[in-house]
């Protein structure tokens, strides 16, 4: 699809998502909540619907060729029930939707202004998201993402406490340790709030890596700055880290995770550079 068509289509997609999220939150989900069933049946029904909303939006972006994406199969060691922390790098604006569309029941820590937004606050509560700290700027450096990481090296204990209680209640969380979208060619430092919450709650950590080639929807990049080629997104998983019954130093584990992500991020940069080089026009030889 030509670039000049992808620009308005991208704007239409995001306006449609927020509008549909508003309608689903204020009308659709309350109706579903009144359907017969036990509280557990109702909860699982709503989780499946919300997961389908995220999948539907990503599927629409793929269908109209704004992105290239195939939802991955969950690995054999992926937790099938109970609380766990799914962590990932954060290269683009749609990472939260990619991850929450993987399986029902995932929620996240969101910025207070999104949690109280008139448009999405009902959806946020039905999705069981956790309100983040008021010190949003300190954690996210002004990012416009909905998601917000908890705890800047332990300086947000109230948010980490909420995460621990959420996990111990059997819920799963998506957290981006970078707290804000990555730079184009460098990851941000990993905050340890996600690891600390998982260790305290005794739940598994599921490390995932999101790659996108070429980069798009980056931090400080307007939505209308689409790349010349549609971005190819891929979600892949590292081995699950069990924390229950183990003596784990969150600081050390966080450093090890960061090193692992740095290695994979460097591979992604090489993939991007190779693709860009292959797509570049061949220089014409001078005429003799």
From TrEMBL:
A UniProt-annotated Pfam family: Acyltransferase
A biological process from GO: phosphatidic acid biosynthetic process
GO molecular function: 1-acylglycerol-3-phosphate O-acyltransferase activity
Pathway: Lipid metabolism
Superkingdom classification of source: Bacteria
Transmembrane regions: 12-37
Keywords: Acyltransferase, Membrane, Transferase, Transmembrane, Transmembrane helix
Record's keyword annotation contains Transferase: yes
UniProt entry tagged with the keyword Membrane: yes
Domain Phospholipid/glycerol acyltransferase: 84-213
Protein name, as recorded: 1-acyl-sn-glycerol-3-phosphate acyltransferase
Lineage of origin: Bacteria, Pseudomonadati, Myxococcota, Polyangia, Nannocystales
């Amino acid at each position: 699809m030509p670039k000049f068509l992808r620009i308005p289509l991208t704007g239409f997609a995001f306006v449609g998502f927020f509008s549909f999220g508003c309608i689903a939150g204020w009308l659709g989900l309350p109706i579903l909540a009144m359907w017969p069933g036990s509280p557990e049946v109702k909860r699982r029904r709503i989780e499946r619907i919300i997961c389908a909303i995220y999948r539907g939006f990503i599927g629409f972006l793929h269908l109209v060729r704004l992105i290239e994406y195939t939802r991955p199969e969950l690995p054999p060691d992926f937790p099938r029930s109970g609380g766990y922390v799914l962590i990932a790098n954060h290269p683009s604006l749609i990472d939260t939707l990619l991850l929450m569309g993987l399986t029902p029941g995932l929620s996240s820590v969101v910025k207070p202004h999104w949690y109280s937004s008139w448009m999405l606050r009902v959806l946020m509560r039905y999705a069981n998201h956790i309100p983040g700290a008021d010190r949003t700027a300190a954690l996210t450096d002004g990012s416009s993402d909905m998601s917000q990481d908890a705890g800047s090296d332990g300086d947000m204990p109230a948010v980490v406490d909420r995460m621990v209680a959420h996990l111990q209640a059997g819920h799963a969380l998506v957290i981006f340790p970078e707290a804000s979208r990555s730079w184009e060619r460098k990851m941000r430092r990993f905050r340890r709030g996600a690891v600390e919450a998982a260790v305290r709650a005794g739940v598994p950590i599921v490390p995932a890596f999101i790659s996108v080639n070429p980069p798009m929807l980056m931090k400080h990049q307007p939505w209308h700055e689409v790349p010349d080629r549609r971005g190819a997104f891929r979600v892949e998983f590292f081995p699950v880290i069990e924390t229950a019954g183990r003596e784990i130093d969150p600081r050390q584990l966080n450093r090890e995770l960061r090193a692992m992500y740095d290695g994979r991020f460097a591979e992604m940069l090489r993939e991007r550079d190779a693709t860009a080089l292959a797509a570049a026009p061949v220089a014409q030889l001078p005429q003799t």
